[in-house]
Amino acid sequence: MARPREFDEEKVLWAAVECFWEHGYEATSTRDLAGRMGLTNASLYNAFGDKKSLYRQALDRYAAISFSDRVRRFEGLPPRAAIEGFFREIIDRSLKDRNRRGCMLVNSALEVAPHDRDLKIAVSDFLHRAEDFFRRRAEEGQADGTIGRSQTAEDIGRHLLGVLLGMRVVARTRPERALLEGMLRPALAILDV
């Protein structure tokens, strides 16, 4: 019979998220992870598998808390308000990020995804879900007349995905409200009726 775990799995997984988010995949050692998570190396491997497996679980957890939760909160708003609120929250979050960690998913797209097929699929899934969120809001806004039709909903979704990724990257080195809002204003202007 397997022994029950003697730790809070959610708490130690979030510690792994924090460690990977702060240092990135390559610069994070198993020793760093075990120390941050309060586990022995053996317990870490038994509970989460190897470093790559733990990274994937951490990335999924981050996505659930950071992205999926945000989408759920904004999907209930009118389409244009949902898009604008989504980005305003990104700006506020970026400005409060004193360690300038950015977005773990965007960081993964730059660091790990180009070199690892499995992680590329995971990050690509996030990118598709973000694009889909923006596209669906644009379709709804175009249907109810609150978002203009000068661009297709598909192109609006793609454009807003690019703006999101750009803002998250730029905010790591220049977390300035004027800069981030200046990136957002033209993106919102394409929604005008």
Give a written overview of the molecule.
The protein is elongated. The N and C termini lie far apart (about 65 Å). About 75% of the residues lie in helices and about 0% in strands. The chain is built from 9 helices and no strands. Helix 1 packs across helix 2 and helix 7 packs across helix 8 (about 155-175). By secondary structure, the chain is mainly α. The longest helix is centred in the C-terminal third of the chain and has 28 residues, at about 115-145.
Features:
193 residues; mainly alpha; 9 helices; elongated
Summarize the structure.
Helix content is 75%, strand content 0%. The protein has 193 residues and is mainly α. Helix 4 (51-75) runs parallel beside helix 7 (117-144), helix 5 (79-96) runs antiparallel to helix 9 (177-189) and helix 7 packs across helix 8.
Shape category: elongated
Give the low-pLDDT segments. Answer: none
Counting DSSP H or I runs of 4 or more residues, the number of helices is 9
Distance between the termini: 64 Å
Assign the structural class, choosing from mainly alpha, mainly beta, alpha/beta, alpha+beta, or little secondary structure. mainly alpha
Q: What is the arithmetic mean of pLDDT?
A: 93
Q: What oligomeric assembly is this protein in?
A: single chain
How do the helices and strands follow one another from N- to C-terminus? HHHHHHHHH
Number of strands: 0
Give the % helix.
Answer: over 70%
- Radius of gyration computed on alpha carbons: 19 Å
Residue fraction in strands:
under 5%
